């Protein structure tokens, strides 16, 4: 495409951004573009390209059109001013560049000099700014004031003009900005024609308390507030200039549209919302969040059973892009202040505190399992996996509560990780329930091989990690599938990250989260009932003798309490066998660290003392151990309620009815558990 001439503007029309454009391509190749404000007959002087936005492809047209100069009555002539002051966004010797990582504007060194054109005179015309009359304020790092909304304007999309009096005219919105509300600069580009960027600031409306609202509202009037100033509308809760006509609110009697009351007064501003939180209610959020302005000024959200007083809310039109229709839409949006619920705040604080304690205890428990090898039998590895999944879920939940992740890709990723970790913890609990049932239902006289135990744990890891991964992948697929496949609002669409960093709707939470929990929990209950029946039969026939109570207590507490991090930790550390194993491990580690320092002393010790030390009884393990009532009587701790067996073999009791439960360490958890 050719470069545009001095009396032409390079314009980009797209089916995504404003102004909306319709392309009509003739068989001869000539093109006509129709917008909301004009019709352009471009002939053959144009080019097409496609741009990608939010995963969608949009058709874009670039062309040259005759320059249109807006007429401003009473504008001073450039000949009658000595200086035209304006602020440059970057320091002298630098121009704007696009940061590829942040997609924001940065300043970079450049030898290109640039001055803007100036709108002046009556009738109005556009002329280059003479260098001798240019007063450049180039402090750099321009930022909008705290109560102002920033926006970047591109000369190819939004027509704006520096006036001879130092103000900026944004022609599309018919808004004039004061000199302290904008800066101008040039974007570095291979094109010889400068692409001017305007960084502008729009003032927000005031915020009112309830008392201020009552003072502004005339007596016996129905008052409601417009969130933005006149000729402005909402865009993602920010106020931007509007290209449409003056907005008026729509009144309802419940959900039925009614005429505007005669005593209606429109105010401007938002609620101060002291001691509360602002909530957005709009059709763009969901069909259940549609607000209805009532004839008495209240705002009702009937599908959520919510009603707000007039002083709590503001309402305005909002423009948003609908992915399902691939079009921009304008809807009515209400921003309402919900006073803080003290009881809910206390409940949230207690919940966050308990979650924090839980994931800290889970971390300590995982660290102990990593330090003490004897605890890492198959059942211990199952419990470690369950605790690890819960630790991640609790940590992410607390992180989201403390930091409040904003809606977007990061929020979606957090929701997927939360879903996966909670479902994985659920399935590991199912594995442990199966382990308990299998252990008591299939008693063996010989210990299984290490290879068999390892393969069993691998199989169950594939089940407990793999099935949740498959469910999470399906959740992501249904969430990001195009809207023409699964419409917005359908139960099958999870709406992950729409209103919060998890499943947004109650129906979605029910089908994608609670239904799997109900199913797996039901299966766990069946395993528990089957295990209890097996123990009852064993007690009745006296096949397990005095060992059954310790095993039953330990597995019962695992099933009931494995889902709570703090309680898991207390039960884990509260077992005497676990404490004994941990003590032995740390004593062993301590002795290893002292060997080098005491070896020399031991070699020069007295021979009699050496003989006395070697004659002391040492701990031995009998290779063939049988269960007997006398052996049990001699052992006082619940750790010794199970008799250990070595790989050398196992003797069966003389009666022939009792069977050993082989283990690989002092932990009462059986080593051959089928978890």
TrEMBL record:
<dbReference type="Pfam" id="PF00002">
    <property type="entry name" value="7tm_2"/>
</dbReference>
<keyword id="KW-0472">Membrane</keyword>
<feature type="domain" description="G-protein coupled receptors family 2 profile 2">
    <location>
        <begin position="347"/>
        <end position="574"/>
    </location>
</feature>
<feature type="transmembrane region" description="Helical">
    <location>
        <begin position="383"/>
        <end position="399"/>
    </location>
</feature>
<dbReference type="GO" id="GO:0007166">
    <property type="term" value="P:cell surface receptor signaling pathway"/>
</dbReference>
<dbReference type="InterPro" id="IPR017981">
    <property type="entry name" value="GPCR_2-like_7TM"/>
</dbReference>
<feature type="transmembrane region" description="Helical">
    <location>
        <begin position="419"/>
        <end position="441"/>
    </location>
</feature>
<dbReference type="InterPro" id="IPR052808">
    <property type="entry name" value="GPCR_Mth-like"/>
</dbReference>
<feature type="compositionally biased region" description="Low complexity">
    <location>
        <begin position="614"/>
        <end position="632"/>
    </location>
</feature>
<keyword id="KW-0812">Transmembrane</keyword>
<feature type="transmembrane region" description="Helical">
    <location>
        <begin position="555"/>
        <end position="574"/>
    </location>
</feature>
<dbReference type="GO" id="GO:0016020">
    <property type="term" value="C:membrane"/>
</dbReference>
<feature type="transmembrane region" description="Helical">
    <location>
        <begin position="349"/>
        <end position="371"/>
    </location>
</feature>
<protein>
    <submittedName>
        <fullName>Putative G-protein coupled receptor Mth-like 3</fullName>
    </submittedName>
</protein>
<keyword id="KW-0732">Signal</keyword>
<dbReference type="GO" id="GO:0004930">
    <property type="term" value="F:G protein-coupled receptor activity"/>
</dbReference>
<dbReference type="InterPro" id="IPR023311">
    <property type="entry name" value="Methusela_ecto_dom_2"/>
</dbReference>
<feature type="compositionally biased region" description="Basic and acidic residues">
    <location>
        <begin position="648"/>
        <end position="657"/>
    </location>
</feature>
<feature type="transmembrane region" description="Helical">
    <location>
        <begin position="462"/>
        <end position="481"/>
    </location>
</feature>
<feature type="transmembrane region" description="Helical">
    <location>
        <begin position="511"/>
        <end position="535"/>
    </location>
</feature>
<keyword id="KW-1133">Transmembrane helix</keyword>
<comment type="similarity">
    <text>Belongs to the G-protein coupled receptor 2 family. Mth subfamily.</text>
</comment>
<dbReference type="InterPro" id="IPR000832">
    <property type="entry name" value="GPCR_2_secretin-like"/>
</dbReference>
<keyword id="KW-0675">Receptor</keyword>
<feature type="region of interest" description="Disordered">
    <location>
        <begin position="605"/>
        <end position="675"/>
    </location>
</feature>
